């Protein structure tokens, strides 16, 4: 495997960063997870826009133009002979001293890893997954906006641990106001009486690229869809529930907090959206 790191492609064993990189010391940096299908990188522009917005929000100037980074993403696919892949793009603050001061980090680091992604097992796509709501709230946007896809995922990891303790592969997180935010690595949707709903930007979420694709697919096919605040009640009375993410794509949730969602099977709206999504990526 060839990994891009700070200007060149090297074998993965040689792709090393300094222990003084503030991405490592403080989680000071940003990243993206991006899919390629049949040699085409899916929604690359949106991912890079989000990456550069995340970087801007933490006052980090990427050392490369977007176009150059996009070309490198394709180069990473070519060098690794991959058509279907998961790309991890990282911009870290770079090497500094042991203090917090990002201004002492003169050279931001850029890494691109092109690999494969382990999706959830097929059985979960066929039958839906069972999740819980976490006690850990999603980071308050006033403190650190979840719009920023930063290298510090501890908030999500704490919730993930709650899920693992309960034997669940994914967990839903509420915001500090008690409204649904998102899952630890995915966005969330429900369907109720034919209307699709998902938490709005103001709920304090990562503005998912897959979430946006689903909103577009719903609009295009005339499925009623709304961004609105949701709470546990809305989950418990939903007819369908599903998660969206670059790695997960669209996956049905059939139980929340031990309660069955709808009929306990992937519902018709979820299946329709999965089929439309597949057309986009495989078509
Ligand atoms: N929320 C969080 C916290 C995530 O990490 C991700 C995955 N990057 C998502 C939502 C889904 O976003 P996307 O569809 O852009 O992958």
What is the CATH domain class of the largest domain?
A: Alpha Beta
Structural class: alpha+beta
Per the CATH scheme, the topology name of the largest domain is: D-amino Acid Aminotransferase, Chain A, domain 2
Largest sheet features: 9 strands, mixed
Beta-strand residue percentage: 25-35%
Number of strands: 15
Question: How much helical structure, as a percent, in the residues?
Answer: 25-40%
Shape: globular
How would you describe the overall organization of this protein?
The model has no long low-confidence stretch (mean pLDDT 97). Strands 7, 8, 9, 10, 11, 12, 13, 14 and 15 form a nine-stranded mixed beta sheet that branches. A six-stranded antiparallel beta sheet has the order 2-1-6-5-3-4. The chain has two domains: 114 residues, 2-Layer Sandwich (D-amino Acid Aminotransferase, Chain A, domain 1); 161 residues, D-amino Acid Aminotransferase, subunit A, domain 2 (D-amino Acid Aminotransferase, Chain A, domain 2). The chain is built from eight helices and 15 strands. By secondary structure, it is of the alpha+beta class. Bound molecules: 4'-deoxy-4'-aminopyridoxal-5'-phosphate.
């Amino acid at each position: 495997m060839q990994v891009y790191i700070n200007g060149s492609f090297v074998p993965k064993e040689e792709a090393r960063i300094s222990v003084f990189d503030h991405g490592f010391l403080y989680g000071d940096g940003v990243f993206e997870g991006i899919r390629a299908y049949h040699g085409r990188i899916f929604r690359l522009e949106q991912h890079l826009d989000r990456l550069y917005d995340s970087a801007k929000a933490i006052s980090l100037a990427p050392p490369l133009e977007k176009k150059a980074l996009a070309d490198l993403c394709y180069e990473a696919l070519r060098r690794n002979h991959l058509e279907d892949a998961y790309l991890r793009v990282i911009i870290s603050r770079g090497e500094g001293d042991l203090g917090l001061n990002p201004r002492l980090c003169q050279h931001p680091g850029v890494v691109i890893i092109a690999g494969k992604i382990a999706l959830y097992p097929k059985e979960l796509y066929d039958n839906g997954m069972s999740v819980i709501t976490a006690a850990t709230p999603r980071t308050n946007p006033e403190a650190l906006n979840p719009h920023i896809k930063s290298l510090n995922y501890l908030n999500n990891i704490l919730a993930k641990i709650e899920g693992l303790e309960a034997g669940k592969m994914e967990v839903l997180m509420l915001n500090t106001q008690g409204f649904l935010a998102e899952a630890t690595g995915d966005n969330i949707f429900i369907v109720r009486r034919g209307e699709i709903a998902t938490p709005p930007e103001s709920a304090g979420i990562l503005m998912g690229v897959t979430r946006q694709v689903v909103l577009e697919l719903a609009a295009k096919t005339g499925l009623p869809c709304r961004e609105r605040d949701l709470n546990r009640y809305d989950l418990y009375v939903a007819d369908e529930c599903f998660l969206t993410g670059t790695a997960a794509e669209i996956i049905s949730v059939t139980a929340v907090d031990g309660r069955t969602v709808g009929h306990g099977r992937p519902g018709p709206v979820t299946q329709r959206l999965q089929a439309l999504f597949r057309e986009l990526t495989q078509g």
